[in-house]
């Protein structure tokens, strides 16, 4: 499905692009250039870089209770949402000062309706009428990202990185595409700081981007990609370090377009290699080989909202026992370990080990669906470099391996080369 | 008219009392003590001290146009109103952390309806139903001061010092009195930094407070006193540097009660002496003695929104000419002088002088209405100290004189003593 080209456009600027008045002016010049080219524009902005952290620290200090977070997160949202309110007003002022017609629209004014899961709310609906009417009368609408409002009128925030999701939701409401200006100039085959031969992808499918985002490529927040896929919003990731020329015209858009798989003519087997250090490996040694034992372990973790990614079970040295290994997010690991230790007697295991010195390396590509041999290439490339893997997980379009962290960069470079990503 | 004692109470804390998390906790302890005594409470808060200045500076930098301020002040309000949003959320969190039931109510949630004069909006209506219902179900309502919302849903701010006005408006809506916690412990007969024998007034009438506020006593914003008088809201000014005792009980309330004249049993002729350095004196020498000339001058000033306070006309040395002296606020003086110079030919005067080295010293008291000799005492006291006055203005309850700034403190002390204020 390709949607007809719209004369509307959503532009999103992150915290770095809103970091101070000079950067806000730079963003405003980019907006002005798009407006001059005839686009009707809504701009979604993050808070000034660092500001959200300051506000969150204040709420922590004011006594956001450790246990009863739920209780207080409505007021947390009141405090933290103010950061984007400030930048949206400042950008509107800056645009006006350049002679443009602009105004800010708070989440409660549009409204950006969310559920009431304060601190990590999900957008439920964004009516496009009010913003659409503003755009149609020639106004540039400036919308604070990250914030919304419940149906009974309380301020909410969407959780970290939520501004990308706001931008996609506004684009869906306006029936147009979304340009995300950020401090990188697109999505790469892998992290260029690890592999200098990494190449920018011109296009990447929603599915691939979703895997890359959740596997550690930090360009876009996972939920924003999910929403873009669900609503078929074309998203372009672009560098904010550009300037219109002397005639106020922007350079031709490069960056990376995130779009439907069907719109990508040149199909690749593997589009990218990702690496994440946000994992921890927990091993229960000498776990009872009762069939209920693993279920007991994972039920306890699920009830405590600990997400488990990879799972490996192997034979233990002790007769009638197994070793159970699983991975969690690194932040959840201490809590998961605590849960296991507290229930050691009930679960029945001999020893617990936590290893944070691990990395998850993944290859992602929609071409895997129709090509055999992808896993084989991966395992051979790793074996050639002497990299052992401790666990594997796969989906239709990705293969991930857990390895010793010391080998992470080596593995990324080996895989990048094995799939010929620098040459495509 | 004395209103029946209400079980509701509005408490207001200024920017110093909200300056950091420790001060917010102190304010919360005072609120908790009032709640424990059985009061149903709404708290009105200012932004953290210094925060509003930072936000205003950002809007200036973003290009709040010098000439076209009107055009942009809606976005100025979006930015600047965020300061109180932050403190109201933080105070609500702090109160919850102490086990109290509290929530914040933004101006648009209550709503605090204002006109659309952005940056200096006037409150038009505060429906008491929503807040009243919250209080009646045992919730402490935390309300950001200084902010409101227009009838078409845009954020407004009330201008500097507007949080006092917010507090009085909320108290009027809730039908109760208003305690204003500040960094002074009440209203004094004069500025204690000038006259150490200044005495705190236990009660002062709305009319007197209004004169004192507009004459330079900076305890309360003038508009908050006007509103309190119009709505008959008793306002108490109190020190925020108090602590509940070990049983959570506050010390007996002292401070100053601002109330109806009829509730003040002990009538004084003069209640206070004020001094202001915010004046400038402008003299047009050799002004044509055409009868239209002064009208021409004051019409031009009025059309430029320059308020004129005192006016003195005297004979000039030149035949057929007069000297016209008037005072304006110091901030307006350069603009007023510019206006006069630009129209020198049309108005017809020889020379313009601006003198900012002046002070206005005033005595205020409702007792003047029924007592003769107040002015006489003033002039004799000044004459005894060799203080000449350059202009006089009077109202029913005050007499002001403009003097050389060098004599200001001397004059204040002389008048404070002449009316026996330290001895009452």
From TrEMBL, chains A, B:
Q: Name one GO biological process term.
A: lysine biosynthetic process via diaminopimelate
The residue ranges of the ACT domain are 282-366
Name the chemical reaction catalysed here: L-aspartate + ATP = 4-phospho-L-aspartate + ADP
Question: Where substrate is bound, by residue?
Answer: 52, 84
User: What GO cellular-component annotations does this UniProt entry give?
Assistant: cytosol
Per its record, what are the GO molecular function terms?
A: aspartate kinase activity; ATP binding
Q: Which UniProt keywords apply?
A: Amino-acid biosynthesis, ATP-binding, Kinase, Lysine biosynthesis, Nucleotide-binding, Repeat, Transferase
Q: Where does ATP bind?
A: 12-15, 182-183, 188, 193, 218-219
Q: What name goes with this protein?
A: Aspartokinase
Where does this protein come from, organism-wise?
Brevundimonas alba
């Amino acid at each position: 499905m390709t949607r007809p080209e719209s004369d509307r456009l959503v532009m999103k600027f992150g915290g770095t692009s809103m970091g101070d008045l000079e950067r806000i002016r730079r963003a405003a010049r980019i907006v002005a250039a798009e407006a001059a080219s005839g686009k009707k524009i809504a701009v979604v902005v993050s808070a000034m870089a660092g500001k959200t952290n300051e506000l969150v620290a204040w709420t922590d200090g004011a006594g956001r209770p450790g246990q009863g977070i739920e209780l207080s997160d409505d007021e947390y949202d009141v405090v933290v949402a103010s950061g984007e309110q400030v930048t949206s007003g400042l950008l509107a002022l800056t645009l006006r000062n350049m002679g443009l017609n602009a105004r800010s629209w708070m989440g409660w004014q549009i409204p950006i309706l969310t559920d009431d899961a304060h601190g990590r709310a999900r957008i439920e609906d964004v009516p496009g009428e009010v913003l659409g009417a503003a755009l149609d009368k020639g106004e540039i609408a400036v919308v604070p990202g990250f914030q919304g409002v419940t149906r009974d009128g309380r301020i909410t925030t969407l959780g970290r990185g939520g501004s990308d999701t706001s931008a996609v939701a506004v684009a869906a409401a306006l029936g147009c595409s979304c340009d995300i200006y950020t401090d990188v100039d697109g999505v790469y085959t892998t992290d260029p700081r690890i592999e200098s031969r990494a190449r920018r992808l011109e296009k990447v499918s929603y599915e691939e981007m979703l895997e890359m985002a959740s596997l550690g490529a930090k360009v876009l927040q996972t939920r924003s990609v999910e929403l873009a896929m669900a609503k078929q919003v074309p998203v372009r990731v672009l560098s904010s370090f550009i300037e219109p020329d002397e005639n106020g015209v922007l350079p031709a858009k490069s960056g990376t377009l995130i779009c439907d798989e069907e719109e990508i003519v040149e199909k690749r087997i593997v589009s990218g290699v990702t690496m994440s250090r946000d994992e921890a490996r927990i091993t229960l040694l000498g776990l009872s080989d009762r069939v209920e034992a693993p279920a007991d372990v994972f039920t306890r973790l699920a009830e405590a909202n600990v997400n488990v990614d990879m799972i490996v079970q192997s034979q233990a040295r002790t007769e009638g026992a197994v070793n159970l290994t699983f991975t969690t997010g690194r932040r959840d690991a201490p809590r998961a370990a605590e849960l296991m230790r507290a229930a050691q007697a009930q679960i029945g295991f001999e020893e617990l080990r936590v290893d944070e010195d691990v990395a998850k390396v993944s290859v992602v590509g929609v071409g895997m669906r129709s090509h055999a041999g992808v896993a084989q290439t991966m395992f051979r490339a790793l074996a050639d470099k002497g990299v052992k893997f401790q666990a594997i997980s796969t989906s239709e379009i990705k293969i991930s391996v857990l390895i010793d962290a010391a080998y992470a960069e080596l593995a990324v470079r080996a895989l990048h080369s094995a799939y010929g990503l620098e040459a495509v």
